[in-house]
Structures are given as structure tokens and as C-alpha cells.
Design goal:
- The structure is a single chain.
- It contains 3 helices and no strands.
- The protein is mainly α and 58 residues long.
- The chain has a domain of 40 residues.
Length: 58
């Protein structure tokens, strides 16, 4: 998964001044994970909660 420069710029604009590097890295990581989750939902790569629960008990 990749992120555009514009997305990074928007992310940096939302950070407080001064910027904590660990916070910046965490927010980039979180944005990547959320984008991946949105892609999974858009492409129907999800499992209903009940089915997930049943699978985890096996």
C-alpha cells in the first residue's frame, strides 16, 4: 500500500507544532492500515462477525 505526497502533507498539517517523530510515524502507519481496511471493504474481502466468531472457535 502506498501513500501520496499530498496525503503526507495533509497529515503533517494536522500535527501539532513541534512535531513528535514517533507520533508522525504512528499516524502514517494508522493511515496505511485504515486505507487497507477501506480497500478490503470496497472489494468485499470481509467476514461477518458471527462467521468470524465461529471460525475462531474451531
Amino acid at each position: 500500500m502506498t501513500i501520496t505526497k499530498q496525503e503526507v502533507i495533509e497529515l503533517v498539517k494536522d500535527l501539532p507544532d513541534p512535531i513528535d517523530v514517533d507520533d508522525m510515524i504512528y499516524r502514517l502507519y494508522l493511515q496505511q492500515k485504515l486505507a487497507g481496511a477501506e480497500d478490503d471493504v470496497a472489494n468485499n474481502r470481509v467476514m461477518p462477525h458471527g462467521e468470524l466468531h465461529d471460525e475462531s472457535e474451531k
